[in-house]
Amino acid sequence: MTAALVLLIYGISGAPGWAGRRTIVVLAAAAVLLALFGLIEARSRGPLVPLRVFRSRGLVGGNLVLRTAGMSQV
């Protein structure tokens, strides 16, 4: 998960240009690692992040509102 987030942040903020090969590879690697984390968590008996928490409309809605507010600040 840590590697996926580092790659995602680098791909969004540090890579040169959106259409560059390096950017695409880094973002694709982040997506693969995030998907792998999701699969492992879904099959685990004791997951770090229980996936059922994402069924809560209040939690998901609140996170989206906070993310939008954080991204809108200059």
Q: How many individual domains?
A: 1
> Mean pLDDT, nearest integer?
89
DSSP helical segment count: 3
> Spans of 5+ residues with little confidence (pLDDT < 50)?
none
The biggest beta sheet reads:
none
CA distance, first residue to last residue:
28 Å
Overall strand count: 0
Shape: flat
- Helix and strand content put the structural class at mainly alpha
Computed over alpha carbons, the radius of gyration is 15 Å
Descriptive overview:
By secondary structure, the chain is mostly helical. It has one domain. It is 70% helix and 0% strand. The protein contains three helices and no strands. Helix 1 (2-14) packs antiparallel against helix 2 (21-43). The longest helix is centred in the middle third of the chain and has 23 residues, at 21-43. The protein is flat, with a radius of gyration of 15 Å. The mean pLDDT is 89.
Write the SSE topology:
Blueprint: H1 2-14, H2 21-43, H3 57-72
Helix pairs in contact: 1-2
Summarize, please.
With 74 residues, the protein is an all-alpha fold.
Keywords:
74 residues, mainly alpha, 3 helices, flat
